[in-house]
Amino acid sequence: MIERSTPPTGLRPTIICFAGDVWDGNPHSRHHLMRRFAGRFEVLFVEGIPMRTVAAGQPGELRRVAAKLRTVPGSLRTVAPHLHVLRPLAIPPSGRLGRRLQIVALRAEVTRALRRLDLCGPRISWFSIPVCAPLRGRLGEAGSILYYQDRYDAFSHVDAAHLRRCLADLAAGCDVSVASSEALADDLRALGAAPHLVAHGVDAARFAGVAEVPRELDDLQRPLVGYVGIVDDYLDLDLFTAVADRVDRGTIVIVGRVNTDVSALRAHPRIRLLGPRPYEAIPGFLSAFACCLVPFAINQLTIAVNPIKLREYLAAGRAVVSTPMPEVLQYGDVVSIADGHAAFADAVVAAIADVDDAVAVRRRRQRVAHESWDAVAARIEPQLSALLMTR
């Protein structure tokens, strides 16, 4: 945790973090970092900002829309000391009118929240999603930072051309840019920025500790092969089936929200989809898995992904099998990397056949022991301080 002597709350510098994620879901990089910046800064975490249009007829779309509507728009709550969460009206950026309405409403709601919280100190705008680019320089901020952790334009059902324009605007206009992978840093360099390359971290102590195995796993045949994370079209779903067909016994357990068609997985007798579970429960699931999966398809989106789940698996000491994502290759000393369905399934079979001794567990944990979120925050914090000093 970053510790500094700080002025009274109202005069502390404020980070306005524009995030597409909801605060109460399983945490992403923005959640981890904002928790660590809170204290030196007041943090206004602006959650649930739509980046994509409503994809009519797509599996899981109604669940996504319903989830956004369940939280009252305009709600403002304090979730921890100096850490405040705003849920704006969820206006999809559909067409020119939708994009304009989204920005006008968002600016008004953020301004009102800052006034209600009496946050009068200097401000920094933190852009984690590009659709908010038109707000840069319009909130009285001392500076701005682009935090680039995904190729947003490569997601399904987005206005890719609009997102590319927004990203270009942020890359050119933000005072600081940070990329979480080498491929993303290359994207920003091509747009004229000079990004800081800062990889994701891990809450190692949480995942390395002793965790209670969830009772819902008791009746599943062992060994358990697990995946934890969102189930979306950027995964190679056929890898789950290939593994399930290849193992002689055991269960493939999938923990996470489903955003795509998984009917083939539900029909398989060796696969169990459990749905989302609280972040606090995830270490218990990992402790029960003989092997963990990173089954991403290889495409323009995923070759730039730096998967947080990889570090969480390793911090838990689990054997890991992954597709050959560029950011995973550097962990080849502790991860089995396999290209193709047959090779992936074979690697899983080999992993669960090995005796998982204490030496192997310790080696995996040590591999990520120095990649904490505290260390990640400490690399970014000086850039934020410099913005305040120069203004």
Summarize the structure.
The chain contains 14 helices and 14 strands. It is α/β, with parallel strands linked by helices and 391 residues long. It has two domains: 9-201 and 372-390, Rossmann fold, CATH 3.40.50; 204-367, Glycogen Phosphorylase B (Rossmann fold).
Plain-language structure description:
The model is unreliable at 1-6 (pLDDT under 50). The chain has 391 residues and is α/β, with parallel strands linked by helices. It has two domains: 9-201 and 372-390, Rossmann fold (3-Layer(aba) Sandwich), CATH 3.40.50; 204-367, Glycogen Phosphorylase B (Rossmann fold). The longest helix has 22 residues, at 95-116. The two termini are 25 Å apart. It is 37% helix and 16% strand.
What structural keywords apply?
391 residues, alpha/beta, Rossmann fold, 2 domains, eight-stranded mixed sheet, six-stranded parallel sheet, 14 helices, 14 strands, 16% strand, globular, disordered N terminus
